[in-house]
Write a structure and sequence with these properties.
single chain, about 575 residues, alpha+beta, D-Maltodextrin-Binding Protein, domain 2, 4 domains, 20 helices, about 30% helix, iron, repeat
């Protein structure tokens, strides 16, 4: 989707897009033209999805599916089946349930459980393993047809593309939801390892009819179009002609290198005639637009994410569109505030639902704005916020108690460093008075604690003569001589040294600083913390928390570090528009 933005801004001419990307582009009203398809077979679509029934079941139309046995390909193969296509049959035939006492996901599961007599829907129903197991125990008939019903996992015999057909022809089910290319192989209509004869099986059609399996004109419920080349209007003809020349090139030439960049499974670059816009292209794809336009529950259960800048809001908006295209529910909305504090106020006033809170605002979020964590960003150990005490090289301070009477620099009041130091001083019995905040003022000399409330000791803000807020501010405070020690994240030191703004002349080195460390075997940090947390209202219901957490877990699976497809449409954790740490941290 970064490529889509670049094309829309005139910074790129063409790119490869999936059909899901095209839906996002259409919903975002970005104009691009489609010039070529990237095919690895001669079929018109990457795949077509059909419903196959046993003749003995008596199924003649969609209404006959009630109380029948359903063989479903299952979940956990998103690179081949998006949830929207996987759930298309059920979304088409089962009345939607929107009971407020259930999550959206459980409403769908419950409706399927009540509609079908039994089923095999193996694999993860939700991305939370404990909740997944709980739902499978609650609706066991949806695992009843599986080879191992008690497990109902993606290792089951009846899981996967061919698994749903095995379920049908083994006699376990009455109807199978499957890809047409797999059906043809399974029933021996094309070479490739037949598992059954076509006798006794038919296609169930969306129009309420049935056709024999060996029909030359099978009825299709929904298709997935091929990946395409899309471009801006002004160069569409030139791009199409150039792409069409790449079909028979020497792999060692620059054209061959170009081909290897845009195609993974190369057979042919198919020329679209005429070149056409997204809307008309997708309208020809049976069921595909319908699959992306089923109505949601009313009133909607939209999750409102609060952002703090234009670029955060832009990334959130793209995330919203991408999540919708991949069938993630509930849907998202993006609301912009001036800063994180205003976002926390918005949550407290029920004007927003989720905000990403940096590490130093976690405590105020909980104490002042009645928020609680929904999840935190996990990072490698070397990326965590590790609170350390830093002095300038040459300082003779070796132990924490030797800092008594010294000038201290903190990133903020009530942040991780502040609370970690208070906790450590208390543990070491170095605070002589209560409340502990007063004890800190007595332990240290004149110091700087940005954001300190007015009713606190003046000595703790006496040395705040410069812009000393944040980790970099604490280091500036130390270097300016306003402090003898700075408490901050260990990782901030290297970032400060590398910063062209903070270290414009390059005279500050890593060895300009010393970390106070009493026992290196136990680590030199006071505490560790994740870089950020998603926070929600303290009075949020468990049901809403489950719904919301599952949305972010699904986005992590599709757009996060461990996405399963060849490419990801959007990087959840990565640069956005050339800027780092937007909405989520890159690492």
């Amino acid at each position: 989707l970064d490529c889509l933005r670049r094309i829309s801004k005139g910074k790129a001419d063409f790119a490869v897009f999936t059909p899901e990307d095209l839906v996002t582009a259409a919903n975002s009203e970005i104009e691009v033209l489609i010039t070529n398809e990237l095919r690895y077979t001669e079929n018109d679509y990457e795949y077509e999805v059909v419903a196959v029934v046993t003749d003995s079941s008596g199924i003649k139309n969609r209404h006959d599916l009630r109380d029948k046995r359903f063989c479903h390909p299952g979940y956990g193969q998103e690179s081949e089946w998006t949830r929207i296509l996987s759930n298309y049959l059920e979304a088409s035939i089962i009345p939607q349930s929107c009971e407020t006492k259930y999550t959206i996901t459980e409403n769908r599961i419950k409706a399927s459980s009540q509609f079908f007599k039994s089923a095999c829907k193996a694999g993860p129903w939700v991305h939370n393993p404990k909740l997944d197991q709980k739902l499978k125990l609650k609706y066991p008939n949806l695992c009843e047809l599986c080879d191992y019903p008690s497990r109902c996992q993606n290792t089951d015999k009846y899981w996967g593309r061919r698994g749903s057909l095995m379920c049908l022809t083994d006699g376990a089910g009455d109807v199978s939801w499957a890809r047409l290319d797999d059906v043809r192989i399974h029933f021996g209509l094309v070479p490739g390892g037949a598992e059954s004869t076509p006798d006794g099986y038919s296609f169930l059609c969306p129009d309420g009819t049935v056709k024999p399996i060996n029909s030359t004109n099978p009825c299709i419920w929904v298709v997935k179009p091929w990946p395409v080349i899309a471009t801006k209007r002004t160069v569409a003809q030139d791009i199409q002609e150039f792409m069409s020349t790449l079909n028979n090139v020497d792999s060692t030439s620059w054209q061959g290198a170009m081909l290897s960049l845009i195609e993974i499974f190369h057979l042919s670059i198919y020329k679209l005639e005429p070149i056409e816009p997204i809307e008309s292209y997708l309208e020809r794809a049976t069921g595909f637009l319908n699959a992306n336009s089923f109505t949601g529950c009313h009133p909607p259960r939209t999750i409102r994410i609060c952002t703090t800048s234009n670029i955060e809001n832009a990334k959130c908006s793209w995330l919203r569109e991408s999540a919708a295209v991949y069938g993630i529910e509930p849907d998202l909305d993006c609301l912009k505030a001036d800063n994180t504090t205003h976002c926390m106020e918005a949550l407290n006033n029920n004007a927003a639902d989720v905000v990403m809170v940096p590490v130093d605002l976690i405590a105020p979020a909980m104490k002042k704005y009645n928020l609680q964590p929904l999840f935190y960003e996990t990072v490698n150990d070397n990326e965590k916020y590790l609170t350390v005490a830093v002095t300038k090289t040459g300082s003779n301070v070796k132990k924490l108690e030797e800092l008594r009477g010294r000038k201290a620099c903190f990133p903020s009041f009530d942040g991780v460093a502040w609370n970690s130091v208070i906790h450590t001083l208390h543990e070491k019995k170095l605070l002589t008075s209560c409340p502990f905040d007063s004890g800190v003022a007595q332990f240290f000399g004149p110091s700087c604690v940005p954001g300190l409330p007015r009713n606190y000791s003046r000595s703790l803000k006496k040395n705040c003569g410069g812009n000393y807020s944040g980790d970099f501010g604490a280091l500036r405070c130390l270097l300016d001589g306003s402090g003898d020690v700075a408490f901050l994240s260990k990782n901030a030191i290297a970032d400060f040294v590398k910063s062209p703004i903070e270290n414009k002349f390059g005279n500050i080195k890593l060895d300009s600083f010393n970390i106070v460390c009493e026992d290196k075997s136990e680590g030199c940090h006071f505490s560790w913390a994740p870089l950020g947390q998603a926070m929600v209202r303290n009075n949020s219901s468990e049901l809403w928390m489950q719904d919301t957490l599952d949305v972010f877990l699904q986005m992590d699976s599709l757009f996060g570090k461990n996405y399963k497809s060849l490419t990801t449409p959007l990087q959840l954790f990565g640069p956005f528009n050339g800027q780092s740490n937007i909405l989520f941290h890159d690492n």
